[in-house]
Design goal:
The complex is a heterodimer of chains A (about 425) and B (about 240).
Chain A (H helix, E strand, L loop, with lengths): L15 H23 L6 H11 L3 H6 L3 E6 L4 H16 L6 E3 L7 H9 L6 E5 L5 H8 L3 E4 L13 H15 L5 E5 L3 H6 L5 E6 L19 E3 L8 E3 L12 E4 L2 E3 L5 E2 L8 H17 L3 H8 L11 E4 L2 E7 L3 H7 L7 E5 L25 E5 L3 H11 L3 E3 L3 H7 L7 E5 L1 H10 L4
Parallel strand pairs in A: 1-3, 1-4, 2-3, 4-5, 5-6, 6-9, 13-17, 14-15, 14-17, 15-16
Antiparallel strand pairs in A: 7-8, 9-10, 10-11, 12-13
Chain B lengths: L2 E6 L10 H12 L5 E6 L11 E4 L4 H14 L1 H7 L3 E5 L1 H6 L2 E4 L4 E4 L6 E19 L5 E16 L7 E5 L8 E2 L1 E3 L2 E4 L5 H4 L1 H12 L10 H16 L1
Helix pairs in contact in B: 1-6
The chains are: A alpha/beta (about 425), B alpha/beta (about 240).
The structure holds zinc ion.
Chain lengths: ~425, ~240
């Protein structure tokens, strides 16, 4: 039964000592953020959160306490889905939009969330992008009403062995939350998500018509090889484990070619201003979450159409004489989704491999770069040569321009804006260069 | 007749871009005017027995056990090796070629394929990072192998297996200086995923071994390989 959006969260007040500490931490954090902005080093959201958490170590727990929370997690699509859900809630709240707070900048660790919440002490509804590793403490301290679990794929190959560990942590956290646990909005196409949410109080299933299956070949419960069976009404077929009873759940919402099929059978079209099939999947998940929070379908859809470049993704930015459309891809699943979005004859691909990108770029060989044949690719970033080798074997025309600024200059005479895909670190650099963060 | 490169069970042993090795091998033949085809086989389907090179890649514990079971019941890999085919096995694929390896938190011992005289047990610390080794080819010349390793198991060699290379930077087999193993036409190594994309000489060596003849040098992709190797080798030696 969906909740009523009008219901205001009521929280027992925090102990005085915690409130004082929180206030002190907020003051220190705000001052540092201001200094960062004046120095031209970005918004300062990150430094605010870090100092706040240092002065008041319990800040995260105190700030999530007593709000109505929708938490959004998963490997890919967290930021966009958070923006879509927040836009839906904003639309639903109408004149009361100030009740909403969200971490729109994608800062999704404890201090990033604390930083966003500290700025909006009066907002009683929070839509929070939540890193996979923060989910357990979010469940413990924030008691979210809704938890959106998008997908769970290997993100950084050098940390691949952590996947199972995280899945287990989610199961345990949902089990501990028990009857106080959230309604989970879960992607039924993803076996790991299905397994991880088995302990949840209630799950609303969304068939997202996801086609990336390379991370989901073995049953997370028993280790057997999963089978794909009869497509039926699902675009991607259903998965099933021959070794145990784990199987694709019957969906409540289904992504279809003409829109999203609702639990009551109605099909509503999604008019999105973010590209790609994966954002349709994200929007379907956001729609199910919005309904649970008490947002009307019409309001949610209107809200979705206002989302254009969440945290800089898909934004068009100027760099000297070059203008570029910026696409972020963090892992093989992300690249599989974004390569088909490239429309320009010349494209720039920026690859780095510091910790935030994953130190191992073996994944380049799991991505179907062959589809770029006929385009000219400018390979840039510290792993430009790894990409160049990959493209040579894919028989895609390319050149290496190691430095990012040089690469942007090198495409100034190509048709504008030039499509550009970057891994996490170069993407953040580009946003900073363009003054978008 | 085209040369068959058999990519074995990517769904089980292919988590690190391992299919890259098959692409590198096939293109390096094609660019020399030799017909080549990559045959990807999944569990349940029969492996061809007339492949020239078989490839095993990286995977997780449960996948290793399943792969051993499937390969044993299929049998074609063994008969192909008897007929002179080459097996190139990487990371988890290397481990399952040995007599035994362990899986899970409790280090349960599992039987491998018995193709290499090696044993794998959980090591003191997980080996994750860039690795650089020096490979001495059968003709006595040496070449550097650059790659990325990510394995918890440490491998010790018995008398019938010879190390593939000597470690310059990284852990390799067990942190004691050797890397990989060679026994007849079976070659196992830890640098995982598309290791041949960083090491075209190793790719050409495998092709020559499978074809039983020398191959002409190749200009195509030489510049990209040189750039990548220069950059990676300099980084790891810094
Ligand atoms: Zn199962």
């Amino acid at each position: 039964m969906p909740n009523d959006l009008r219901t205001r969260a009521t929280a027992a007040p925090l102990p005085l000592a915690t409130r004082l500490r929180l206030r002190a931490g907020t003051l220190v954090g705000d001052a540092a953020a201001l200094a960062s902005r004046i120095a031209g080093r970005g918004s300062g959201a990150s430094i605010r959160g870090q100092l706040l958490t240092r002065v008041c170590p319990g800040a995260f727990a105190a700030l999530v306490h007593g709000r109505r929370i929708a938490s959004v997690t998963g490997t890919n699509g967290k930021t966009t889905t958070t923006h879509l859900l927040a836009a839906a809630v904003r639309e639903g709240l109408g004149p009361d939009a100030a009740r909403l707070v969200t971490n729109a900048d994608g800062a999704n660790l404890h201090y990033g969330i604390a930083s966003a919440l500290a700025k909006a002490p009066k907002a009683d509804i929070a839509v929070l992008e939540t890193d996979e590793r923060v989910v357990a403490s979010m469940l413990e301290h924030g008691r979210p009403e809704v938890l959106v679990m998008l997908n769970f794929s290997r993100d950084q190959l050098d940390r691949n062995h952590e996947i199972k560990f995280l899945g287990r942590a989610w199961r345990q956290a949902l089990e501990r939350a028990g009857a106080d646990g959230p309604v989970v909005i879960a992607n039924s196409d993803d076996p790991l998500i299905t397994w991880a949410t088995q302990t949840a109080r209630e799950v609303i299933w969304v068939d997202t018509a996801t086609t990336w299956t390379a991370d989901a070949t073995l049953c997370p419960a028993c280790g057997d090889v999963l089978r794909r069976v009869d497509p039926g009404e699902s675009a991607t077929g259903c998965w099933d484990c021959p070794g145990c009873d784990l199987t694709e759940p019957t969906p409540d919402y289904v992504v279809q070619p003409r829109g999203v099929r609702l639990p009551d059978g109605r099909i509503v079209p999604l008019e999105l201003n973010v590209p790609g099939a994966f954002n349709v999947a994200n929007a379907a998940m956001a729609l199910a979450a919005a309904v649970e929070l008490g947002v009307g379908i019409e309001d949610a859809l209107r809200g979705f159409s206002t989302v254009r470049s969440p945290a800089g993704r898909f934004s068009v930015a100027g760099f000297g004489a070059t203008s570029a459309r910026l696409v972020l891809s963090k892992n093989p699943a992300g690249w599989a989704e974004s390569l088909p979005l490239l429309t320009t004859p010349t494209v720039v691909l920026a690859i780095d491999s510091v910790a935030a990108d994953g130190k191992d770029v073996s994944w380049l060989w799991d991505v179907d770069f062959e589809q770029l044949r006929g385009k000219h690719v400018v390979c840039t970033g510290p792993r430009a040569y790894d990409l160049a080798v990959r493209l040579e074997y894919a028989e895609v025309g390319h050149e290496v321009v190691y430095d990012l600024d040089d690469a942007l200059r090198a495409v100034k005479d190509a048709p504008q804006p030039v499509d550009l895909i970057a891994t996490y670190t170069p993407f953040q650099k580009l946003l900073k260069k363009a003054g978008l963060r | 007749m085209s040369v068959k490169i058999v990519l074995v069970y990517q769904s089980l042993l292919g988590i690190y871009g391992d299919r890259g090795n098959s692409q590198v091998l096939a293109k390096r033949l094609e660019w020399r005017g030799v017909d080549a085809e990559v045959i990807a086989v999944e569990p349940g389907a029969p492996l061809p027995a007339d492949g020239a090179i078989y490839l095993l890649g990286g995977g997780e514990d449960n996948a290793q056990t399943t792969a051993v079971r499937e390969l044993r019941s299929d049998g074609a890999l063994f008969s192909a090796l008897d007929a002179g085919a080459v097996l190139f096995a990487v990371c988890a694929g290397y481990q399952i070629c040995g007599h035994t390896f362990t899986i899970g938190e409790n280090d349960e011992v599992r039987e491998g394929l018995g193709l290499l005289d090696v044993e794998t047990r959980r090591g003191a610390k997980r080996a994750v990072g860039e690795i650089l080794t020096r490979w001495t080819k059968p003709d006595g010349t040496t070449s550097l192998i650059t790659g990325f390793e990510n394995h918890g198991g440490y491998t010790t060699l018995g008398p019938d297996a010879a190390p593939l290379a000597q470690v310059e930077v990284g852990i390799g087999n067990d942190g004691h200086g050797t890397e990989g193993a060679v026994q007849g036409h079976v070659i196992g190594t830890y640098p995982h995923g598309p290791v041949l994309a960083r090491n075209p000489e190793l790719a050409d060596y495998l092709l020559a071994l499978a074809l039983g003849r020398r191959l002409d040098p190749l200009d195509r992709a030489a510049e990209q390989h040189a750039g990548l190797r220069r950059e990676r080798i300099a980084l790891v030696r810094r």
